[in-house]
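Quick illustration, no need to memorize.
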Amino acid sequence: MSLLLHICCAPCSIHCVKTLRAEGLEPVGYWFNPNIHPVTEYRARRDTLAAYAKSIGLELIQNDRYGLRDFVRAVYPDLEDRCGVCYSLRMRETARFARENGFDSFTSTLFVSPYQNHELLREIAEKAADEFGVKFLYRDFRPGFRDGQAEARALGLYMQKYCGCVFSEEERYIRRKKP
């Protein structure tokens, strides 16, 4: 099976890649994250992932388009459903790329994070798979999240403090100010 693994960042990829390899699957990483803001954050995550992928022998394909304007246009005016829109942007592009480049299936490192809406993400990934005629490989990677994060810290990888979008960064600062 040829598997395309959408990767949001290096720390989240650690447990996912190890799990897939333990199952006998060798994923190909796929970087597509138009939601990440600012551009310095985007570059830090991209560059950290590229270096980490090289260090573990993971093939990485980069759809390296900083997409802040497209992302904001997509989520406006329904900012309350921005996560669903963001998931859809990334899962649809990953499924499209998988189909057009001969992959049998795809999945995402987003399924490792306990902070994501796992059920909504899964539903959107399944719809993208149906739309583009490629299989979606579901894995609940969340049980290994903390171990992957600890390994990322031990390796000295760049560790972000928010999901990536400008709105989650705003929420992070608002939460900090509350007593």
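Residues 29 and 60 are 4 Å apart (CA to CA).
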